[in-house]
C-alpha cells in the first residue's frame, strides 16, 4: 500500500471521528463553549499521554539535544485552539450541517498554506478539484434563514481557516520527526490550560447526559486528531486533503439518524459536487509517477 493510500484511510477515519464529535456537542446541551472545549481536550490529552509513553524515549532524546520545534508546536496549538473554540461556538449556534461544512474550509486552507509555507506542489487539477469542493460546500451551507445573526457564520469560517493553518503546522512537525502522540498531547494540554481561567469563575455543573456526551466528544476527537496527524505524515496535503470533505456525508448521516435532519435538494447536489472534486483528485493522483505518490 502506498503512503498516499495510507493517508487517505487515515483522513477518512479522522473525518468520521470529527463528525461524531460534532454530533456530541449539541447533544451535551446548553453549556458554555469553552467548557465543552475543555472536556473535549482533557479526554484527548489523557489518550495522547497514554500513547506517548510508548515513544517517550524518542521525545526525551529530542528534548535533550534541543531538536523539538517549540515554535511550530506552539503555533499548531494556538491555531488549533482557536479552531476548536470557533467550531464549538458554531455548533452551538448553527445547524449541525451548516457548522460542519463551513469547517470544511480547513482542507482548502491547508492546501494553500502548504503550497506557500512548505513549498508543496499544487497543480491546476488540484485547484479544479478544490473548486468543485468549495462550490459544493457553498451549496450545502447556503443561508437557511434560521438565524439573522451573521456572527456564527463568520466564526465558523474563521474556525475552518484556523484549522487549516494548524494542519499545515502538523505537516511540518511530521517532517521534523515529532511523534504524533506528542503533537496531540501538547496541543490538547495547551488548550486545556487556556480554558482553566474561564472555568474557575464560570463553571457550570454537568448532568449525566452532558458528561457522557462530552466524554464521547473527547474520544471521537482523539480518533479525529490522531487520524489527521497520521494522514499528513503519510502524504502531503495536495494529495489527500480533499478526502476530509467526507465528514460532510458522515455528519449528514449522523444528523439524520440522531437529530432527524433531512438534507434538501441543494445539499444533495452539494454532496455530489464535493465527491466530483474528490474523484478528480483521485484520478489525477493515480496518473502521477509512483515515486511522487510514495514520498
List keywords for this structure.
295 residues, mainly alpha, disordered C terminus
Descriptive notes:
There is one protein chain. This protein has 295 residues and is mostly helical. It has helices at 3-27, 33-52, 56-64, 70-93, 96-102, 105-117, 124-140, 151-175, 180-202, 208-234, 237-240, 246-259, 265-286, 290-293.
How is this structure best summarized?
By secondary structure, the protein is an all-alpha fold.
What is the alpha-carbon Rg in Å?
Answer: 18 Å
Task: Tell me the major beta sheet.
Answer: none
Instruction: Report the β-strand fraction as a percent range.
Output: under 5%
Number of strands: 0
Overall pLDDT confidence: 81
The secondary-structure class comes to mainly alpha
| Quaternary structure annotation | single chain
Helix content percent band: over 70%
Helix and strand string, N-terminal first?
HHHHHHHHHHHHHH
Q: Characterize the overall form.
A: globular
Beginning-to-end CA distance, first to last residue = 13 Å
Number of helices: 14
- The parts where pLDDT drops under 50 for at least 5 residues are 290-295
Topology:
Elements: H1 3-27, H2 33-52, H3 56-64, H4 70-93, H5 96-102, H6 105-117, H7 124-140, H8 151-175, H9 180-202, H10 208-234, H11 237-240, H12 246-259, H13 265-286, H14 290-293
